[in-house]
Structure formats: structure tokens, C-alpha cells
Design goal:
Largest sheet of chain B: 8 strands, mixed
Number of domains of chain B: 1
Order of helices and strands of chain B: HEHEHEHHEHEHEHHEEHH
Radius of gyration of chain B: 18 Å
Number of strands of chain A: 16
CATH class of the largest domain in chain A: Alpha Beta
Structural class of chain B: alpha/beta
Number of domains of chain A: 2
Shape of chain B: globular
Shape of chain A: globular
Number of strands of chain B: 8
Distance between the termini of chain A: 45 Å
CATH topology of chain B: Rossmann fold
Strand content of chain B: 5-15%
Radius of gyration of chain A: 21 Å
CATH class of chain B: Alpha Beta
Strand order of the largest sheet of chain B: 2-1-3-4-6-5-7-8
Oligomer: heterodimer
Number of helices of chain A: 13
Helix content of chain B: 25-40%
Strand order of the largest sheet of chain A: 3-2-4-5-7-6-13
Distance between the termini of chain B: 35 Å
Strand content of chain A: 15-25%
Order of helices and strands of chain A: EHEHEHEHHEHEHEEHEHEEHEEHEHEHE
Structural class of chain A: alpha/beta
CATH topology of the largest domain in chain A: Rossmann fold
Largest sheet of chain A: 7 strands, mixed
CATH architecture of chain B: 3-Layer(aba) Sandwich
CATH architecture of the largest domain in chain A: 3-Layer(aba) Sandwich
Largest interface: A-B, 41 and 44 residues
Chain lengths: 397, 291
């Protein structure tokens, strides 16, 4: 983290992200209100109302329409922004595939929240993890500062002509959207220098009529998909490059694809994503003081999934514990499944155990992390339980 | 005649009213036009990658979001100071049913977009299933006549009334059989500073089953029978009605189509035929179609 500057302020996470969006100068913002995303779009509305932000802000009839509006605006050459969560992201599902398939560099903050039933407005990451295969890039923020910085970085990644892929910047609902913490707000001029105006490759223009959204039959459909797949592979390099460029301009860097905490000599490594990392770092500090060789690997980029970087980062771990706020009902969970797949053809043979925790807003505490580390120590000698729900209240089952 | 902005070589059926309708709309709008289309026959017959029949910029996203997509195009055109015609052209399935929320939003927000529905009264692209636009007693693959059915049990949804309820400043019906009227209405709609809606009767040879050479005659009969009144509303007021000079009975229109043939085979369908004639008579009275 750089030295504190005059721009460091104690603000709500949603305001900080809205301010970052303002610094990205989107032409069109379209959104539908859903808790806990509301404060982001309310702040943006106020900025537009006050003339602080020169964007077209469309209040629409649904999340489905919110993202659909941006399909039109993007095709007409605009830089586009939306934000949603949970049920809203689910309602967008069909448009998510459409945006990525049409290679539109739209950026969206996802204020991660549980999906019903049962109805639950609190934080977990089922929404975004459930949308891992829709062709969007996904970056997960640990804290408000990272959410702010990733939002600016996202446009630079998405708009690269080699990438042209939409991005979800995921931030835990309430935990990050509603928290007040010290944040260095982006400097508008520096942001403009870092992210110049959008130069679309193709736009709807009667002087040069083009057809957007044609249908592809079996003779070409696979190649369209392959190009999306290839763009995600290219994004592995671009994400890291942009993180470094950001560091040069703003002085902050916390990993492009991944970041480690006490990773070098760690025997037990916890792998996770999102805001729970703060708690895990505190737990690691305490355990390190007791002489336990515990470390952390933060997955910042979940899509593209950084297979090679993960293999390199985890090659010396003797046991790996994955904690995540989602569950693949009928399977295990997103991150642990992907991690196992990434290692199967490598020579890493350390045990991997998975924990679903923090669903529907249940707290994950330092005690829970210690509990997981204790289970990992057991697994090191032989896996007893490959995957489990942490802190299951068996008394109410 | 100038070169059409919808090129030949598209894959629509012979005898389909849709491409004729689109050509008339584009003729009236001219080349300074952007078209947004939902999924449907129009999309699949005109844009098999890497081919396209469109000589104006054309954008397709999904089945139910064309109006939202067009809203997004419109705000960008305004932002860039472009005075370009923006037209949504979609079938009745996307217009009456699955895209209703998106249409309602576009109407209510007042975007300067002309929405043209080519109305062939069922889901033709998927094989003639019933839509909210399917008329009373019409046979579709999901409203087949049988011992317990006389075809579609419900009357057609009144989509122009829905547009009017949104205070859409220009709402009209038109027909592929009345090209001068259709072109005039398109030009008028494009002058409106806000949304406009034109619903065009567009017979589907596959779904309605008729002889390919009779498509225009059939569309004309729909108007002359009173089942498809040609009217226009400006700022909520009825300002124009196409008078019918040679009124026809509804049965003359119905009996040319396979989708109604069950009505003429069974005695118990006589009452349904009377009900359809009553719908036509009500239109004739309401719009004073006959002098």
C-alpha cells in the first residue's frame, strides 16, 4: 500500500466504488435496484443529478432490461456500466452470455449476495460463482480499496482489442458495500490518463452498415466460442500487466491474478476469495505467532482461472484448505472443484479439502479459521472429510 | 425504384408477408436508419453468419429485449447528437408476450423509437405455436382443434390499446396489402419525438396455410372484413381510419386459411363463426369502417 495521500477518506464502500465508476466516465449507466447494490447506483444517480458525472443514467424495468440496454449502448459505441447482485444477476443470466458472446467490454460491480430460496439478502458468493461459465471475467475484491481499484482496471482490461470481454468486479454485499473504511479515492486526472476514452472497434453507423448479432450454425459456432476462450487466456497476461501499470500510476499493487500472505514457507495454505481474507490474515498472524506455518493464497481472478499461476504458488504446500461462500449443490463448490481440476495433471499431490462457509451472511470468525487449520493438519496425514459445510447447525436439521 | 435496403437472397418462405413488410418499412425510413430486431423468423432468415440481407446497421440480441436494447442505442445516438431513425422490427411473440416488460419500459421512458410489429399471430419460427396475438379459434400446434377444442379459446390481445395506455404518442395498425398507407404511417411515426408503435398484419404461409399467390389478397380481406381495422391514434386521439369500400364477411377471410378450416367442417362450430363475425362487426361499428 502506498503512503496515505490527501485523497484518503473514510467513506462507505458503495460511495467509493461509485466514485471509481465516475472516474471511468461511462457513457451509459443502466441499473435496477436490489439490496445490497442500491447505494452504488444511488450515488451514481446523485453524481449525474449534480452534473459531477456526464453519463446517461437509465432507470429500467428489471435487471434483464438493465443489461439489455447496455447491449444497445455498447453496440452504439458507448462505455457502459451496471451493478447488480443475487436475484438480479440470475435474472440477467441470458444477457450475460449475450454480452460476452458479442464481445462487449461492459463492466459490472456485483455486490455478492445469496440467491433464494429461501430468500436471503445477506452476503455469500453463490450469485457470481454460479455465473462463472458465462464468458465474463471475474475479479474478487478483498476490501473496498481493491474494489475501487479493480473497477478502474476492469475497463482497461475489458476494452483491450485482444480481450473485448465483459468483467464482473465482485465485492461482498454489505461487508464491502456498506462498510465505512479509509479509502484512497481515485484521482480523476490520473484515472483519465490511465484509462483513456473508449475507442470501439465496431459501431452501429448508417454510413458503414454492419450486422450485429447474426446467428451462427454448426459450421461456425464452435469458433465463436473458441475466440472467447482464447480471449480469456490472453486476459491472464493482461490482468497482471494492468495491475502493474496501475501500480506505476497509483502506487498500489496486490496481485494481478493471485496474491499470497505468508505463502513462501507455508505448509498449510488456505485458498479463498473476497472479504473473508481480512479475517484469515488476522487468524494467520495469531497462528504464526504460535509458530504454525500457515499461509494464504488469494484468488483475485477467478475467471480466467489462473491454472499455471496456482500450480506455481501452491507447489510447496503440504495441505490445501479451500474456503468459499458458495456451494455447487449436487457437487462440491466452485473454487475447490476448479482447484482440484487444475492440479490433477500436475505433480502436486498435496491433499485438498473444501469448506463451504458464510452462506447467507453467516459470519466466518477467527475461531472458524483455526478450526479449518486444525482439520487441514489432520488431512495432511490422510483426508477424513474431503468437503464439508462449516459450522452446520445439526440441531435444527 | 431504388435498391431495397433489405437485399434479396434472404431465406424467408415464398409467400411470406414479412420481407415485403420490412422492405416497405425500410423504403419509407431510408438509409439513415438503424434496426434492432428480437429473435424470430426475421432474424434467422436474414442473418445466417457470415451472410446478411441488411443494408442498414442491424442489431439482434435476444428474444425478449429488443426494446431495452433499442433504448440503449437511442441514448447513445442522442449523446452523440445523431439524427438517425431507430426502428425495432419484431414479430408478435416478442412484442405481445415475452418482450412485454421491455416494451413497457421503452414506452414509459419515452425513447424516440419506432416499434414495428409484423404480426403473423403465432410463434411461427418455432413451428406455429399459440401466442398472445393468436386470434379466437385459430388452429396452432398448441391450440389444435379436437373433440374438446375449436382451436385457440381466447381472443387476440389488444396490443395497440396497451401502447395507448402508455401514452405512446403515435399508435397505428397497418397491412402489407396497403403499402401506401404503411409507408405513410412509418414516415409519420418517425417524425414523432418519442415512441411510436405500428402493428402490421403479415400473413404467414406456413402457419396460416394458404396459396402463396394469395398472400396480399388474404391481407386485404382481413381489412375488408373488419377483422383488421386500419387506424391511427395521435396523442391518444383516433385521427385516422381507412374506410372499407367493399365490406366482406369474416367467413370469406377465414375460409381461405387452413388454420380455420375446422370451423367449416363441424356444425358445432357455427357459433364460433358467429362470434368471429361479431368481432368484425364490433370493429366496423367502433371505427365506423363502412360509410
Amino acid at each position: 500500500m502506498s503512503e496515505k495521500t490527501a485523497n484518503m477518506k473514510v467513506v462507505e464502500g458503495s460511495y467509493a466504488v461509485a466514485h471509481a465508476v465516475m472516474c471511468c466516465r461511462p457513457d451509459v449507466i443502466s441499473a435496477y435496484p436490489i439490496t445490497p447494490q442500491t447505494h452504488i447506483v444511488e450515488n451514481l444517480s446523485q453524481m449525474v443529478a449534480d452534473g459531477e458525472l456526464d453519463s446517461e443514467f437509465l432507470t429500467v424495468d428489471s435487471e434483464f432490461s438493465a443489461l439489455s440496454v447496455l447491449v444497445g449502448s455498447s453496440a452504439a459505441g458507448g462505455r457502459c456500466y451496471s451493478s447488480t447482485t443475487s436475484q438480479g444477476l440470475a435474472l440477467m443470466y441470458e444477457v450475460l452470455y449475450n454480452v460476452s458472446g458479442m464481445r462487449m467490454p461492459i463492466v459490472m460491480n456485483v455486490a455478492n449476495r445469496a440467491i433464494g430460496a429461501p430468500l436471503n439478502i445477506w452476503n455469500d458468493q453463490q450469485d457470481a460463482i454460479g455465473a462463472r461459465d458465462v464468458g465474463w471475467l471475474q475479479i474478487y475484491a478483498e476490501n473496498v480499496q481493491e474494489a475501487v481499484d479493480a473497477t478502474l482496471q476492469a475497463y482497461k482490461i475489458a476494452e483491450d482489442v485482444q480481450i473485448r470481454t465483459p468483467i464482473m468486479v465482485c465485492m461482498d454485499g454489505f461487508v464491502l458495500t456498506h462498510v465505512y473504511e479509509p479509502v484512497e479515492l481515485l484521482d480523476k486526472e490520473k484515472a483519465e490518463e490511465f484509462l483513456p476514452d473508449y475507442q470501439p472497434a465496431d459501431i452501429l453507423d448508417p454510413a458503414h452498415p454492419k450486422t450485429f448479432g447474426a446467428f451462427a450454425d454448426p459450421s461456425t459456432f464452435t469458433e465463436f466460442r473458441y475466440q472467447q476462450f482464447e480471449a480469456q487466456q490472453k486476459a491472464l497476461i493482461k490482468i497482471e500487466k494492468v495491475a502493474r501499470e496501475f501500480e506505476e500510476t497509483f502506487g498500489r499493487y496486490y496481485g494481478g491474478l493471485l496474491d499470497g500472505y505468508f505463502l513462501d514457507d507455508a505448509e498449510i495454505v488456505i485458498v479463498t476469495l473476497g472479504s473473508v481474507i481480512g479475517t484469515i490474515k488476522d487468524a494467520i498472524d495469531a497462528m504464526r505467532a504460535e509458530g504454525k506455518k500457515v499461509g494464504l493464497l488469494k484468488v483475485r481472478s477467478y475467471r480466467p482461472f489462473p491454472v499455471q499461476a496456482l500450480r506455481k504458488a501452491l507447489k510447496d504446500a503440504s495441505v490445501i484448505a479451500v474456503i468459499e461462500k458458495d456451494v455447487a449443490i449436487g457437487g462440491e463448490a466452485g473454487l475447490v472443484t476448479d482447484l482440484k481440476a487444475a492440479f490433477y495433471n500436475s505433480n502436486i499431490r498435496s491433499p485438498i479439502i473444501g469448506f463451504t462457509a458464510g452462506l447467507g451472511g453467516r459470519d466466518i470468525t477467527i475461531k472458524d479459521i483455526r478450526n479449518i487449520v486444525a482439520k487441514a493438519e489432520v488431512a495432511r496425514k490422510g483426508i477424513q472429510s474431503e468437503f464439508e459445510f462449516l459450522n452446520l447447525r445439526t440441531e435444527i436439521l | 425504384m431504388e435498391k431495397s435496403l433489405l437485399a434479396p437472397g434472404h431465406r424467408a418462405c415464398a409467400g411470406c408477408a414479412m420481407p415485403t413488410t420490412i422492405r416497405l418499412v425500410l423504403d419509407a425510413a431510408g438509409p439513415n436508419t438503424i434496426v434492432v430486431s428480437p429473435t424470430g423468423c426475421l432474424e434467422v432468415t436474414t442473418t445466417p453468419f457470415p451472410e446478411s440481407a441488411w443494408c442498414v446497421p442491424w442489431l439482434h440480441s435476444l428474444f425478449e429485449n429488443a426494446s431495452a436494447v433499442a433504448s440503449g442505442v437511442e441514448v447513445m445516438l442522442k449523446r452523440r447528437g445523431k439524427d438517425t431513425n431507430l426502428i425495432v422490427i419484431g414479430g408478435d411473440g416478442s412484442t405481445f408476450d415475452i418482450g412485454m416488460g421491455s416494451n413497457s419500459g421503452m414506452f414509459e421512458r419515452g425513447h424516440k423509437v419506432l416499434y414495428v410489429c409484423y404480426d403473423n399471430e403465432a410463434y411461427m419460427n418455432t413451428g406455429v405455436q399459440r401466442s398472445g396475438s393468436t386470434p379466437f379459434c385459430a388452429q396452432t400446434t398448441t391450440t389444435p382443434p379436437g373433440s374438446h377444442s375449436q382451436g385457440n379459446p381466447r381472443p387476440k390481445k389488444d396490443m395497440p390499446a396497451i401502447a395507448l395506455a402508455h401514452k405512446v404518442p403515435y399508435v397505428a395498425t397497418a397491412s402489407v396489402a396497403y403499402p401506401v398507407d404503411l409507408r405513410r404511417k412509418v414516415k409519420k411515426a418517425l417524425q414523432v419525438n418519442g415512441p411510436s408503435y405500428i402493428q402490421v398484419n403479415a400473413p404467414c404461409i406456413t402457419g396460416w396455410t394458404f396459396d402463396a399467390g394469395t398472400m396480399i389478397e388474404l391481407a386485404r380481406l382481413a381489412v375488408e372484413s373488419g377483422l383488421w381495422p386500419l387506424m391511427e391514434y395521435e396523442n391518444g386521439e383516433l385521427t385516422g381510419v381507412k374506410k372499407v369500400r367493399r365490406p366482406k364477411l369474416a367467413a370469406e377471410y377465414l375460409k381461405l386459411q387452413g388454420r380455420y378450416k375446422h370451423l367449416f367442417k363441424k356444425a358445432e362450430c357455427a357459433d364460433s363463426l358467429r362470434q368471429i363475425q361479431a368481432l368484425a362487426d364490433a370493429n366496423i361499428a367502433r371505427y365506423k369502417l363502412v360509410d
